[in-house]
Write a structure and sequence with these properties.
- It is a single chain.
- 45% of the residues lie in helices and 14% in strands.
- The chain is α+β, with helices and mostly antiparallel strands and 337 residues long.
- Strands 1, 2, 3, 4, 5, 6, 7 and 8 form an eight-stranded mixed sheet that branches.
- A hairpin with a 3-residue loop joins strand 1 and strand 2.
- Helix 1 packs across helix 11 (181-194) and helix 2 packs antiparallel against helix 8.
Amino acid sequence: MSPFPFLSLLNWAKTQGRHSLPWRAYFHLSIKDLGYHIWLSEILLQQTQVERVIGYYDHILEHFPTIESLANASYEEFFPYYQGLGYYSRARNMLETAKIVTEEYGGIFPNNADELIKLPGVGPYTAAAIRAFVYDEPLLSFDTNLEKIFSRYYHGNRFRKLTQKEKTLLEKDFRDTGISGREMNAAFMDFGSMVSLNIKPSDDNKWKKNTKDYPLSDCLWLKTHGTLEIREKKKKTVFPTKDASIIVVLHENHRIYYSSTEGEYQSFLLPPTENDIRHAIQDFFRSKFNLELSVRPIHDKYFENDRPFVVCNAQVQKGDTLFAKYRKENGFFVENT
C-alpha cells in the first residue's frame, strides 16, 4: 500500500478550502469555548447539509454563547432555536451532553475517546473529530465520506470498503507526517464536499472541467475515469405511496408508545394523502390534538390484503398527550402503569 499524499491534499485545501465556515474560527478561542463550538457544529452536521447548519449554528450560539448557558436551558427554551433541523432526539441529547460536560468536566470536553463516546449523541467519528479539531490530535476522523476518498484513491471505487488493516496503516502513515490533525481533517471534509464528485465515466466534458486541478493525481478513480464504480442497476418496483394508508407509531424515544385506543395497543391510522406524508401527519395531530410532532421518513412499506400501507415513527415535541401509554416487553406491548 503506497503512502497517501496527505501533503498534496493539505496544500490544495490551503487555497481552495472552505475557510469561511464559522466553526473554523479556532485561534481566538479558549480550549473550553473551542470544544463547545466544535461539538456544536459536529452534532448539527450529523445527517444535515453544511448550508442548512450555518444559520442554526450562529443562531444557537447567539442565544446560548457558552456550554453552561445551554446546560441551563430547558427543552422548551432550546427547541425554538433548533426547530426545523429534524432528528429531535438529537436536540435532547445536546442538552443532556451540555449538562454532563458542565457538571462533570467543568465545561471542557475531555481529550479521551472512551469518555467522549459515553456522552449522548457522540459516536466514534464525533469523538475523533472533537479530539482532532479541539486538541489538534493527529487522528483521522473516519466516516463514510473519508473512507470513500481512500477507497477511490487506492481501489478506484467508492463502494469498496477499506479493511481494518488498511485503516490502521493510513492512520499510522498520517501520524508519521507530523501534519496537524485539525488542518488535515478540515482538508478531507472540504475535498469530499467540493471535489470528490460523482461523474459518469462517459461524460468527458465533466471529467475535463471538474478534475483539471484535482489534487490527487495518482488516484485510481481519476486514472480509470470512474469505470471501476459502475454498478448494475437494480430494477425498481413502484410502490403506490399516495394510495397507502398511513400508520403512525407515536413514541417517546422508543421507551413509551402512545396508543390510539385504550385497553389494547393500537397505532394511529390515517387515510392516504396526495400531499407530503410527514406534513400530513403533523397537520393531523396539530389540528385534532394540539400537538407538535417530529416525524421521521417512511420506515416501512407493505401490502396487506392488497391494500398498501406505510409506517412512520413520530415523537411529540410540544403539547400534552392524553393517550394510553405502553412499553415493549419481549416484543409485546404492555400497558405502562
